[in-house]
Amino acid sequence: MKIKIISVLLIVIGIFVICYPKISEVYHDYQQQKLVKEWKNSLEIIHNGEDTSEVSNEIEFTDTAAIAHVEDETNAEDPKPDFSSYENMEGILVIDKIDLLLPILHGATKDNMKTTVASILDTGKAGEVGNYGIAGHRNRTFGRNFNRLDELEIGDTIEVDSGDAQFEYTVTEKFRVKPEEVWVLEANNKDKEITLVTCDPMVNPTHRLIIKGKIVD
Prior knowledge:
InterPro entries: Sortase, Sortase_D_2, Sortase_dom-sf. One of its GO terms (molecular function) is hydrolase activity. The protein is α+β, with helices and mostly antiparallel strands. It is 26% helix and 27% strand. The chain has a single domain, classed as Sortase, Chain: A (Beta Barrel). It has helices at 2-45, 57-65, 71-74; strands at residues 89-95, 100-106, 117-119, 130-135, 157-161, 166-177, 192-200, 207-215. The protein has an 8-stranded mixed beta barrel with strand order 1-2-3-4-7-8-6-5.
């Protein structure tokens, strides 16, 4: 009886060893498909629509407080506005060329992107090897969110303040893709990259404007 049990176990183990590569391949394919689906959902959320500045008075107040060049904040001893009311905040995005200073929220959901920019789930992290994806609406109000993102050119600077450290990226690429082209969020596993994504053109968008940058050590 004991020999029979051992024989059955050996057969089961043998089958598992033979099937493991295929099982592993199926699992990784599933994970990749799940990741691509999440990325597609994030890219689909980025649309023009109505100017979110008119959604509600509360949203308007919160977003206005997040803009770098509010006169009261500029004249204060600490030039940075107070972002303490934001939940799930990962850091602050700063692009001096287009006068942008906004909190980065975790997850490019509709709610997060009503007032500010947000990181795209399952992309990299600021300052680390990987591709840190950030999405934002291109509102029609001048200077709001990613409204002026198309003004960036190769060589410009993008900064991310994580609270613990500050990271400076240099713009390396600027191009446009279709919403389903999620390859722009993939990492090459050697560079510390950032990818900013918004809709294009501003009215009736059909594509996504992509700004890519790298940390130059």
